[in-house]
Design brief:
With 877 residues, the protein is α+β, with helices and mostly antiparallel strands. It folds into 5 domains: 161 residues, Galactose-binding lectin (Jelly Rolls), CATH 2.60.120.430; 188 residues, Jelly Rolls; 55 residues; 96 residues, Phosphorylase Kinase, domain 1; 245 residues, Orthogonal Bundle (Transferase(Phosphotransferase), domain 1). Strand 32 and strand 33 form a beta hairpin. It binds 2-acetamido-2-deoxy-beta-D-glucopyranose (5 copies). It is found in: Cell membrane.
C-alpha cells in the first residue's frame, strides 16, 4: 500500500516537474490512475461469500469478529425482504451484538480509510430492530450514539440506512470497530448488515476557509469526515460500481435538493480533461464533471434568482462543503462569474471557473467550511448568484457536483447526533407547504424528507412492511394525526404545476405554450429532426391513433427507437393535452411511468417523443391481440408495476396527480415487460388532494372505467384512479374488455359483472380460461378481494393506491411461496395485509413510493439511465 502510494506520488511529482502547469496545457497527460485500494467488503452474518446486485462480492464477517467472553455473536436472517432493497446482499443477513462486540480490521497505517455501515431495520429471529439502540465507535471516534436504525428508516422513508465516514490514518494499523447496545433500554441490541473498509488516497488535505468567520481556516488533515450528501449536479445517479478509484461512493442526482421552482438547465459536455493533477481520479468520477446545472438563459431572470440547494444537517457541527466545477461551455475568464453563498453568507465573492482552471472542460473543486449552529433549523443553504460587478459576458452560474461532510467534534471526536424526529420533520414539511401555496412558485419542497440522507435518495425507499407494521403500532397516535394530510414528505420534484413566471425565460425559438421549467427538463427537437425520425410522418410507421392524432414509431440519434405522438393541429383540446403532458411528464421520472424524451413545437406542429415500448399495451396481451397469453405471475407483476406508477403519481410528487384515464391501453410494456403508465393528457394536479379535497371538473375518462361517484358528483379524487384500476385488475384476471355491449345486459360492464360474481362466490367461472390451474387459490383470493375493494361505490371506502400495491405484492408472495408468505404475515400479526379502507390514502403503508423514482435515477435500470442522459444532453441548444 505504502509503496503504491509513493509510486502514485512520484508519478504526480514527475508530471508536475515536467509540466509546470499541466492542467493549463492542452496536451497535459493525465497522471496514471491511482492503484485500486485493497478493500474489505463484508456481508455481516453471512456464512459464505455472496454476490451483490452489481456483481460485487461480499465476504463473510466471522474472521474479523473480535473475540468476546460470551462466545461468537449471533448471525441472523431478516424475516422479510423489503421489495425496495433491490438486492438481498448485504441486507438479508445480519450480525447481532447483544452485548459489546465488534470487528477488527487490518488497515494501512498511512492512508485515510473510508468505512461504510449498512443497517436494514427488520426482524431478526426473535429480535425486532425497533428495540435496537446502540453506540458505534471506531478507535477513538464516536460514530453513532443511541442510534436506532428503525427510527431513522421511518423518518427518512428509507429501506435501509447507510453511514459513511472517512477516518484519519490509524498508526496502529488496526480499526477497532465496537458496537455497544444502549444501556437503559431493556433488551437493546446492536446489529449491522454490511461493512465496507476502503483505504483511500488523501483527498481531504487542504484548509478551507471558515465561511463567515474572518479569515479562519479549518485544517482537514486533522479531521475525520462523515459524508452527508454527495450529488452529481445536473446528472444521473452514479452507482458504487461506477465510482472512481474503487471507492464505491454513490453520487445522487441533485434535483430533489433544489429549492424553489428555479431549477435552471442541466448541461452535458462530453469533452472533459480528466483526470488532472488538481483533480485526480479519487476525487470524483468523470461523470460528475460532464454534467452540470446552470441558470436559465434569460439574464434578466437570472439577476432575480439564486440557484439554491438545501440540505438537512445536524446542528452544532462544522461542515465541509466541496463544490465540483467544470465549465464545458465557456472558454475565457469573465464570461461567467458568480457569487457562492453558504447559509446566506458569502463563501466566494467571485467564482469564475475558467479563470480558475485556465480553460474549457478542465475540472476543479473548491472546499468551504462552515459551522452550523442550531438557529438555522438544521438546513444548510447553498446558493449561487451571478456576479455582475465585473460585467461578465453572461449572467449565469454553474455547478457540477456537491458534497457535504460533517467534521467530527473536536472535543470528543464524535459524529453522533440525535435520532431524527419524525413528528418534527412532518410539521416542518407541513409548514413549508403552507408557505408555498398552489399558485405561487412555491419553494421549500426540499425539506425534512431527505434529512440525514448522505445515504440519501437511493436508499429513500420503502420501509419494510414488517418494520412498518411494528412502528405503526408504536407511533399510532402520531400517524393518525398525520394521516390524510401529507403527501409531501418524500423527496419531491419541483412544482409539477409550473407557471411560466417562475423563471420566465423563453428561448425565442421555443414553444410559447410551455413553462421554462418543462422546457429546461426535456430535449427540444426541431421539426426537421422529427420528420427525419418518422420518415416524414410515413403512414407505415403509425403504431397508434387517438383523439389527439397519430403515434409513429421513429428512430433518433441513429439507433434509438422512440414513439412519437403528433398532435392534430386542428384540435384545440389536443394542444392543451399536449401541454399538460409535457408539464407533467417532464417533471416526473419513475420506472413505472412512461418516459418523455422530448418534444417539438414548431410551425404549428407539436410532437412528443417517448421511449419506445416494445411490447405495446397491456390490453393487446390480454385479448384482441392474438398474442400468446401472459402467465399469471407476469400479469401480477404488471399490475404491481402499474400500481407503483399510480401510487407515485398520487403521493410521490409535490401535488397529488390524478391520472383520470387509467385503463389497459394506457398501461404500456417495455421490452423487458416492465409496466409503464402512460397518457397524462387528462391528468390533474391539485394542492394536496386529501380525502376531503377534490377537483371539480368536467367528466372525462373512458367508459367502463369511470368512477361512478365521479360521474355523479363530478368531483375528482385520486380514488377515481383506484376505481379504474380495480377494473383493470378484473380485466387482467378475466381477459375481457371493460365494456362488452355484445353480452347480456348484466354482463356488459365488467365492473358490475365481476363484482356480482365475486359476491356470489363464483368468480372462478369468469376467470380467463387460459389461467386455469395457474393461480394459487390464496393468491386469487387476495387479488380478487383487492380488486373488489377498489370498486367500492364510495371513494372513501376504496383503499389508497399504496394499500392496493401492498396487497398485490402480498398476493405475489402468496403465489410464489404461499407457506412463507402466510408465515410472515402471521409473524407480524397481520392477516396478510388487510386493506385499509379509505383513510384518504394519506398515510402510505411504507410501500414503495419513492423507490422507483429513485431507481430510475439510480440507473440500475439501464433503459432509464439512457433516457436520462438523453435528457441532460439536449442537442441543439
Ligand atoms: C456504469 O458502468 C457501466 C460499465 O462501465 C456502464 O455500462 C453504465 O452505463 C454505467 N452507469 C452509469 C450510471 O454511469
Ligand atoms: C446545540 O448547542 C446548543 C448550545 O450548546 C444547545 O443548546 C443545543 O441544544 C444544541 N443543539 C443540538 C441539536 O444538539
Ligand atoms: C437563508 O435565507 C433563507 C431565505 O432566503 C432563509 O429561509 C434561511 O433560513 C436562511 N438561512 C440561514 C442559515 O440563515
Ligand atoms: C441570494 O442569496 C443571498 C444570500 O442568501 C441573498 O443575500 C440574496 O438576496 C439572494 N438573491 C436573490 C435574488 O434571491
Ligand atoms: C435515544 O433515542 C430515543 C429516540 O430518539 C430518545 O427518545 C431517547 O431519549 C434517547 N436516549 C438517550 C439516552 O439519549
Amino acid at each position: 500500500m505504502k509503496y503504491r502510494t509513493c509510486l502514485l506520488f512520484s508519478v504526480l511529482l514527475i508530471t508536475l516537474l515536467l509540466k509546470p502547469s499541466p492542467a493549463l496545457s492542452e496536451e497535459a497527460r493525465p497522471p496514471n490512475p491511482p492503484p485500486k485500494a485493497e478493500s474489505l467488503i463484508i456481508s455481516c452474518g453471512a456464512t459464505e461469500p455472496e454476490t451483490g446486485e452489481d456483481g460485487q462480492s461480499w465476504q463473510p464477517d466471522d474472521k474479523y469478529l473480535t473475540s468476546t467472553s460470551g462466545g461468537e455473536p449471533k448471525a441472523e436472517t431478516a424475516a422479510f425482504q423489503d421489495p425496495a432493497l433491490g438486492s438481498a446482499v448485504p441486507f438479508m443477513s445480519a450480525r447481532i451484538f447483544e452485548s459489546r462486540g465488534g470487528y477488527e480490521f487490518a488497515v494501512p497505517t498511512d492512508t485515510r480509510v473510508m468505512i461504510r455501515f449498512y443497517f436494514y431495520a427488520s426482524t431478526y429471529g426473535t429480535l425486532d430492530a425497533a428495540d435496537s439502540y446502540f453506540a458505534l465507535t471506531v478507535n477513538d471516534y464516536q460514530l453513532l450514539n443511541n442510534f436506532s436504525a428503525a427510527i431513522a428508516s421511518e423518518a427518512l422513508t428509507q429501506a435501509y440506512i447507510m453511514k459513511e465516514f472517512s477516518l484519519l490514518p490509524s498508526p496502529s494499523g488496526v480499526l477497532n470497530v465496537v458496537f455497544t447496545p444502549s444501556a437503559g433500554y431493556k433488551g437493546a441490541f446492536a446489529f449491522v448488515n454490511g461493512v465496507e473498509v476502503i483505504p483511500m488516497p488523501d483527498i481531504f488535505d487542504d484548509s478551507p476557509p471558515l465561511v463567515g468567520i474572518g479569515d479562519q481556516t479549518v485544517d482537514l488533515t486533522t479531521y475525520g469526515l462523515q459524508s452527508m450528501y454527495r450529488l452529481n449536479v445536473g446528472g444521473e445517479v452514479i452507482p458504487p460500481a461506477n465510482d472512481s478509484a474503487g471507492l464505491r461512493r454513490t453520487w445522487y442526482n441533485d434535483f430533489p435538493y433544489l429549492f424553489g421552482g428555479a431549477d435552471g438547465r442541466s448541461v452535458y459536455k462530453k469533452d472533459v480533461k480528466y483526470p488532472t493533477v488538481e483533480v485526480p481520479e479519487p476525487v470524483a468520477p468523470r461523470s460528475v464533471y460532464t454534467t452540470s446545472r446552470s441558470m436559465s438563459e434569460d439574464p434578466m431572470v437570472n439577476q432575480k434568482f439564486n440557484l439554491t440547494w438545501v440540505f438537512q444537517v445536524d446542528a452544532n457541527f462544522t461542515y465541509m462543503v466541496r463544490l465540483h466545477f467544470c465549465d464545458g461551455e465557456m472558454t475565457r475568464a469573465n464570461q461567467r462569474a458568480f457569487h457562492i453563498y453558504l447559509n446566506n453568507q458569502t463563501a466566494q465573492e467571485t467564482a469564475d471557473v475558467i479563470a480558475w482552471t485556465g480553460g474549457k472542460g478542465i475540472p476543479i473543486y473548491k472546499d468551504y467550511a462552515l459551522y452550523q449552529n442550531d438557529k438555522s433549523g438544521g438546513n444548510l443553504w447553498l446558493a449561487l448568484h451571478p456576479n455582475t460587478a465585473s460585467h461578465p459576458e453572461f449572467v449565469d452560474a454553474i455547478l457540477n457536483g456537491v458534497e457535504v461532510f460533517k467534521l467530527n467534534s473536536v472535543s470528543k471526536r464524535s459524529f453522533a447526533a440525535p435520532n431524527p424526529e419524525l413528528s418534527e420533520m412532518m410539521s416542518r414539511v407541513e409548514d413549508a407547504r403552507e408557505e408555498s401555496s398552489f399558485e405561487t412558485e412555491g419553494g421549500g419542497q426540499v425539506v425534512g424528507a431527505i434529512a440525514g440522507g448522505a445515504t440519501g435518495l437511493a436508499a429513500v425507499v420503502v420501509v419494510s412492511a414488517v418494520v412498518l407494521h411494528k412502528k405503526r403500532r408504536r407511533t399510532a397516535g402520531k400517524s393518525s394525526r398525520r394521516s390524510g394530510s401529507s403527501n409531501n414528505w418524500l423527496p419531491l420534484y419541483g412544482n409539477s404545476h409550473t407557471s411560466s413566471k417562475s423563471t420566465g425565460s423563453r428561448r425565442s425559438t421555443n414553444s410559447s405554450h410551455l413553462s421554462t421549467v418543462a422546457q429546461g427538463l426535456c430535449r427540444h427537437f426541431s421539426l426537421q429532426e422529427i420528420k427525419h425520425a418518422t420518415r416524414n410522418f410515413d403512414e407505415a410507421k403509425v403504431i397508434g391513433v387517438g383523439g389527439f392524432g397519430k403515434v409513429y414509431k421513429g428512430v433518433i440519434d441513429g439507433t434509438m427507437e422512440v414513439a412519437i405522438k403528433r398532435s392534430n393541429p386542428q384540435s384545440e383540446q389536443g394542444v392543451n393535452e399536449f401541454e399538460t403532458e409535457i408539464e407533467m411528464l417532464s417533471k416526473l421520472r419513475h420506472k413505472h411511468l412512461v418516459s418523455l424524451i422530448g418534444f417539438c413545437d414548431e410551425d404549428d406542429e407539436m410532437a412528443l417523443v417517448y421511449d419506445f415500448m416494445a411490447n405495446g399495451t397491456l390490453r393487446e396481451h390480454l385479448y384482441k391481440g392474438n398474442k400468446p397469453p401472459l402467465p399469471w405471475k407476469q400479469r401480477l407483476e404488471i399490475c404491481i408495476g402499474s400500481a407503483r406508477g399510480l401510487h407515485y403519481l398520487h403521493t410521490g410528487a409535490k401535488y397529488t396527480i390524478i391520472h383520470r384515464d387509467v385503463k389497459t391501453t394506457n398501461i404500456l410494456l417495455d421490452g423487458k415487460w416492465v409496466a409503464k403508465v402512460s397518457d397524462f393528457g387528462l391528468s390533474k394536479t391539485g394542492p394536496d388532494l386529501n380525502a376531503q379535497a377534490h377537483v371539480s371538473t368536467v367528466v372525462k375518462g373512458s367508459f367502463g372505467y369511470l368512477d361512478p361517484e365521479y360521474f355523479r358528483r363530478q368531483q375528482l379524487t385520486e380514488k377515481s384512479d383506484v376505481y379504474s384500476f380495480g377494473v383493470v385488475l378484473f380485466e387482467v384476471l378475466c381477459a375481457r374488455p371493460a365494456l362488452n355491449p355484445s353480452l347480456s345486459k348484466e354482463q356488459v360492464s365488467l365492473a358490475d359483472w365481476a363484482l356480482q360474481c365475486q359476491r356470489k362466490g363464483n368468480l372462478e367461472d369468469i376467470i380467463d380460461p387460459l389461467l386455469k390451474g395457474d393461480i394459487n387459490p390464496e393468491c386469487l383470493k387476495k387479488f380478487a378481494e383487492t380488486a373488489e375493494k377498489c370498486l367500492a361505490d364510495a371513494g372513501v371506502h376504496r383503499p389508497s393506491m399504496g394499500d392496493v400495491l401492498w396487497n398485490l405484492e402480498f398476493a405475489l408472495q402468496l403465489q410464489e411461496n404461499p407457506k412463507s408468505a402466510a408465515a410472515a404475515a402471521a409473524a407480524i400479526g397481520q392477516k396478510g395485509g388487510e386493506i385499509g379502507g379509505g383513510n384518504g390514502g394519506g398515510r402510505r403503508r411504507g410501500l414503495s413510493t419513492v423507490d422507483e423514482e429513485v431507481s430510475v435515477l439510480t440507473s440500475d435500470d439501464t433503459d432509464d439511465s439512457e433516457i436520462f442522459s438523453q435528457i441532460v444532453n439536449p442537442k441543439g441548444r
